[in-house]
Design brief:
With 458 residues, this protein is of the alpha/beta class. Helices cover 42% and strands 19% of the residues. Keywords: NADP, Oxidoreductase.
Length: 458
């Protein structure tokens, strides 16, 4: 895949970029290693000052950053601006809390291990490679970069090839915020060159957000090299609606949860599992709201859904939808691409899903919702957990016993009751099963790329 900005609303290639030469790549890896040796000795106060300055730039330039994101991957301008501001919030969160999260952890009674003092101390690991996706081209990177930099690590970014301007902007923001040269570098390289970077001894760990095949590849390489990894992969999140739910609120949240980011979010609700007693009432509300959404130019304020980010992405959606239809699924709205340029796909709702359809087991990365009918909470949980993924989940019920059952028995890294799944800097984020391992955000996220060193003083 060429490194290029291609506007998904028009299909026009706006700008192309040359890959780093091997000499340039080696220079950047050397700079990261050398910089880390000095940067790790800086104080939390120094790092926080630089990170807050970079956050100020994000806020001041939110409109510019938003236009970059919309141009490169097609999210609506409003959503892109909110993403830029969320980056600033995440940066300030770690600037404020990193020192506390990484404070020494003394043993209350060191004499029980025969010591005068005994404690755990968090220390940075070194240069970390981040392999990042295009769907949240700035926030996804910031979830790694802000905690990694505050911990004293340095970052190397291998971004998706269709968002090169976003990748270069991120490097520039950290530089202008005051971080020393080499603390955060963008590597404009193809996917085929990632393995050599992962195997380089100067790179000590890696984090990846992306597809299951990409995660498997990175994990295998790093396992061979015995390097730490954090993986956030796909999701096929359930959205369960029980009879006690507020159906109007649930239906509106279901629309937002499915079509956020033009439907291209790992934590977007994808499978809507509705109790038989309220199936028809919920479905009517849900389908009606999905039909009302406006698909169009993502720069227009009246647009609800922009294009899918890539031409191949739209083809993948069409394959899954067409497969379901051919096997007997019912299309309640959408289901056919519109005429004209760009990679648009309409909000689509499909019912009568059966296990023999690909859409039953595979993630649909676009504005397509699958509807399932459940007779009771047992069947709802059975359907919800009948997937190899386990990232996020949603359940709508005002029955406290049902709420506790969903919290206990939904197989996911996150459970949201009466709300849609969202990433917050204040809460740990990650999945189980084939949705990956490790955690981003909160205290857990900053500790992922630290050595917890045991210290015993006699």
């Amino acid at each position: 895949m060429p490194i290029a900005t291609t506007n998904p609303a028009t299909g026009e290639t706006v700008k192309t970029f040359d890959e780093l030469s091997e000499a340039e790549l080696q220079r950047k890896l050397g700079l990261a290693h050398d910089r880390w040796r000095a940067y790790r000795t800086t104080s939390f106060e120094e790092r926080a000052t630089w990170l807050r300055a970079a956050a100020d730039l994000f806020e001041e330039e939110a409109d510019f950053a938003a236009r970059l994101m919309t141009t490169e991957m097609g999210k609506t301008l409003g959503a892109a601006r909110r993403e830029a501001l969320k980056c600033a919030h995440g940066m300030r969160y770690y600037a404020d809390h990193a020192a506390g999260f990484l404070a020494d952890e003394p043993l209350a009674d060191p004499s029980q291990v025969g010591a005068k003092r005994a404690l755990g101390r968090y220390q940075p690991l070194g240069p970390v490679l981040a392999v990042m996706p295009w769907n949240f081209p700035m926030w996804q990177v910031m979830r790694f970069a802000a905690p990694a930099l505050m911990a004293g690590n340095v970052g190397l970014l291998k971004h998706a090839s269709n968002v090169p301007q976003c990748a270069l902007y991120l490097e520039d923001v950290f530089r202008r915020g005051g971080f020393p040269e080499g603390c955060f570098q963008t590597l404009l390289i193809s996917a085929g060159r990632v393995e050599s970077v992962l195997r380089d001894p100067r790179v000590v760990a890696a984090t990846l957000t992306g597809s299951e095949p990409a995660g498997r590849s990175v994990a295998a390489i790093c396992g061979d090299e015995i390097k730490h990894t954090v993986l956030e992969l796909g999701g096929s999140d359930p959205f369960i609606v029980m009879p006690s739910a507020d159906l109007d609120r649930a239906a509106q949240a279901a629309v937002e949860a499915r079509v956020q980011n033009n439907g291209q979010s790992c934590i977007a609700a994808k499978r809507f599992i509705v109790h038989s007693d309220v199936y028809d009432a919920f479905t009517g509300r849900f389908v009606s709201r999905m039909r009302e959404l406006k698909v169009g130019d993502p720069f227009e304020t009246s647009t609800d859904i922009g294009p899918v980010a890539t031409e191949q992405g739209r083809a993948d959606i069409e394959e899954l939808v067409d497969d379901a239809i051919s096997a007997g699924a019912t299309v309640l709205c959408g289901g056919q691409r519109p005429a004209g340029p760009g990679w648009f796909y309409p909000p689509t709702v499909i019912g009568d899903i059966t296990p023999d359809m690909r859409i039953f087991a595979e993630e649909v990365f676009g504005p397509v919702a699958s509807l399932y009918r459940a007779a009771d909470i047992e069947q709802a949980l059975e359907i919800a957990n009948a997937t190899s993924f386990g990232l996020g989940s949603n359940a709508w019920t005002n029955d406290e016993a049902e709420q506790q059952r969903f919290v206990s028995d939904l197989e996911a890294g996150q459970v949201f009751i009466n709300g849609k799944t969202i990433s917050y800097p204040e809460l740990p984020f990650g999945g189980i099963k084939r949705s990956g391992y490790g955690r981003e955000l909160a205290a857990h996220g900053i500790r992922e790329f630290c050595n917890l060193k045991t210290i015993w003083i006699g």
